[in-house]
Amino acid sequence: MSNPIIKVDIKYRDLEVSLEGEVDEVYRQVIKWFNKILPAIDIAEKLILDIDFERLASKLEKYINISRDGEIVLKPLSDKLSLHNKLLLILAMFKLLEFIGKRPSSATLSELSHLLNASAKTISSRLSELKSMGYIERIRENKNVKYKISLRGLLYIEDKI
Q1: Is 86 exposed, middle or buried (0-12, 13-18, 19+ CB in 10 A)?
Q2: What is d(CA 18, CA 26) in angstroms, rounded to the nearest whole number?
Q3: What percent of the chain shows pLDDT beyond 90?
């Protein structure tokens, strides 16, 4: 499978650059050009948190499989994890699936309860604890309450799981 080619033209004041190549290489060249031309961007970049979805996917694949039709299945290795961490992994997977356009990042209590084979009361208690730690967000969509992972939760997964 060949890597996709991208072409980017940038014009800033009287400076212009045209870059073409594989996506990753052009991305690096664009960042390098901006850092060279706009030094403040380099400083700001050090302060910006950005989720590396490729790295997140490699973490998640140790614990979760996805079927072709989008069904999530926890691998046996996940049995060693706490319910808190399993919830975070599933919500992180939903975030990843949203990033690639497969589903929304939020999930209902009943979805999570079904995926984890646990009672709604148990899942609800763990979700409340995760929310109080800032790892997930509780959102209302119409009359439904849904949960999604927060940036802090994603950073926790990257660092601790």
Answers
A1: buried
A2: 10
A3: 50
Same domain assignment for residues 26 and 67: no
User: What is the distance in angstroms between the CA of the first residue and the CA of the last residue of the chain?
Assistant: 32
| Residue 28: domain span | 5-47
120: pLDDT strictly greater than 90:
yes
- Is there a single domain that holds both residue 35 and residue 59? no
95 with 34, same domain: the answer is no
- What is the per-residue burial (b if ≥16 Cβ within 10 Å, else e) of 108-127? ebebbbebbebeeeebbebb
* Residue 53 one-letter amino acid: F
Against a cut of 0.85, is the pTM above it?
no
Specify whether the CB–CB gap between 127 and 112 falls below 8 A: yes
* 77-104 pLDDT per residue, tens: 998 999 999 999 999 999 988 888 888 9
